[in-house]
Amino acid sequence: MTASLLTDAPGRCMKCGFCMSNCPVYGIDPIESHVARGRNMLILQKQAGTLPPGKAYVQSLSHCLLCGRCRAVCPAKVSSPEITVAARAAVVRQQGVSWSQALVFRGILKHRHLMAHLAGIAARLPGLGSKQGTPLRHMADMTAVVSAGIAIPRLSRPFLADRLKSIRKPPDPSATRGRVVFFAGCGFEFFFSGMGQAMVEILTRSGFEVVYPQSQGCCGIAAYNAGDVKTARKMASANLSAFTDCDAIVTGCATCGTALKHYGHWLPQGNGLRAAAESLAGKVWDFSHFVHHHGFPGQPRRKRPLKVTYHDPCHLRWHQGIIEPPRRLLAGLQDIDYVEMDGADACCGLAGSFAITHQETSRAIQAKKMAAIARTKADVVVTSCPGCIVQLMDGAQRHHVPVKVMHIGQMLNKFEAGANHGE
Ligand code: SF4
Ligand code: SF4
After folding, report:
1. What are the start-end ranges of the E strands in 25-82?
2. CA nearest 106: which of 217, 267, 256, 246?
3. Cβ neighbours for 21, distance < 8 A, ≥ 6 positions apart
4. Angle at 376 between CA 332 and CA 419, to 5 degrees
C-alpha cells in the first residue's frame, strides 16, 4: 500500500462522472461524497490539510462497497477502491480500530482454532446449528441484532476441516493430473461445508489430488478492507506458512481468491514472506475458472430440467475479471435452461460488514437484485461466493422470491457436463 495511492492517484480523476451511473451506492443515495468522484476529492483535500474537521470524511470512506465497478468504467483508470482502502488504513493508523473491529478481526477471525471452538459450541445450540430441540429463548432475537436482521444460515456440522482431514486422491491415483490445495475461507469452513466438500469431490473426480491444510485460516480481507492492515498481514502470513507444495490453490470464494491473489501487495518490502506471496498469485484459481479450464466429469442426468441464472460476485467479476467461465459451465450442463438476469454484474449489497453498518442502503441494493432474479423466473440462482449466497438467501426469504440459491460447485456436482468443457 503506497503513499502515492493517497497523494497522486485521486488527482487523476477527470470528474467525468462515469462512476456515478455505475455505483450501486450512489444509485440508492445520490450524494457526491458517496461515490468515487466525490470521495477522491475529499481524500485529496484531506491530504492537503484543507478538509474542514468533522465526521463527514470517515462517513464518506465507509459508504463504499469496494465492489470495483467504478474502476472498471473509469476512463482515467483511477483505482478508487484501492484509494479508499488506503484512506481507511490512514485513519486506522491515526485513530486505531473500533472496539467491535478489534474484537472481530483480532479476537476472533485471526484465531481459527478459537473460532472453530466457539463455532463448534454454537453449532450444537438449537437455532444456530442444531436442528434438534427447541430454539433457545431469545436466540433468534440475539442473532438478528448481531447480523442486523440478515438471515444467517445454520452452522455446518461437521465443519469442513473435519470432513477433509486426509488428502483426497483421485479415483485413479496412477493418472493424477496434479496436486491442489483447497482454500475454504470462513464461509465454507463454518457455514457451507457441504458446498466445500462438493467442490473437493469435483476436483478429485477430475483427476486432482486435493490437500486441505488444517492450519489455514481467515483470508484477512475483512480486516484489510477496514484498514486494519497489521492484522490482515498476520493472517496472510499464517496462510502462506500453511500452504504446502502444490500445482494450484483453488478456492470457491471469490472474496478469498481476491485476497490470496493480492497478498504480495499486502506485505511490505523486506517481509520474508513477500516473495512467496508474489509467486502465490500465479497459482491461485477460482474454482469455476479452474474447472472450466481443466474440464470435469459429469454426474448422472436429472429428470426435471431447471431454469438457472447467475449472479456475478463483485470480487470475481470486477476484481479478478472472471466473467465467462461460470456462465459457460452452467450453459454447458445437461438439462439446464440458462437465463441471464438484468444487472447480473451488480453488487448484491452485502459487502462484508456494509450490510450491517449501512443496513438501509444494503437492503435497497438487495431489493434490486431480487427483483431482477424474480423477473427471470429461474428455479435456481447460482453464484461463486459464500457472502453473496447469504445475501441472496436472505433476499429470497425477505422478498418471497421462490428461488433456490446454490454455489456453482453444488450445481456441477448434481448435473452432467456437456461437451464444451475445458479451455
Ligand atoms: S469515472 Fe473515474 S475519472 Fe470519472 S469521475 Fe469517476 S473516478 Fe473520476
Ligand atoms: S467501489 Fe463500488 S460502491 Fe465504491 S465507489 Fe466504486 S462503484 Fe461505488
Report:
1. none
2. 217
3. none
4. 5
DSSP one-letter code for 118: H
**Given the CA of residue 351, which atom of ligand 2 is nearest to it?**
3
Contacts of residue 399, Cβ cutoff 8 Å, sequence gap at least 6 = 367, 370, 371, 374
Q: How confident is the model at residue 413 (pLDDT cuts 50, 70, 90)?
A: confident
C-alpha to C-alpha distance for 99 and 51, rounded to whole angstroms: 26
Average pLDDT, the chain: 88
DSSP letter for 301, please. P
> 405 has which bridge partners?
381
Query: Do 4-95 and 296-414 share a fold?
Result: no
CA of 77 to the centre of ligand 1 (A): 8
For residue 240 the three cell numbers come to 502462506
Tell me the pTM.
Answer: 0.90
Mutate to test the pocket of ligand 1, among 40, 78, 84 (most ligand atoms within 8 A of CB): 78
Residue-wise burial string across 131-165, b where 16 or more C-beta atoms lie within 10 A, e elsewhere = eeeeeeeeeeeebeeeeeebeebebbeebbbebbe
Class of domain 4-95: mainly alpha
Give Cα 199 distance to the centre of its chain: 16
Q: Contact 210/200 with Cβ under 8 angstroms?
A: yes
Whether the Cβ atoms of residue 308 and residue 378 lie closer than 8 Å to each other: yes
The listed CATH number (3.90.1520, 2.60.40, 3.40.50, 3.40.1350) that belongs to domain 296-414: 3.40.50
Mutating to test ligand 2, I would choose from 28, 80, 348, 358 the residue with most ligand atoms within 8 A of its C-beta, which is: 80
Q: For the chain, first and last CA: distance in Å? A: 35
Domain limits of the chain?
Answer: 4-95, 99-146, 160-292, 296-414
What is the tens place of the pLDDT at every residue in 84-104? Answer: 999 999 999 998 888 787 778
Domain 160-292 classification at class level: alpha beta
| Contact (Cβ atoms closer than 8 angstroms) between residue 375 and residue 258 | no
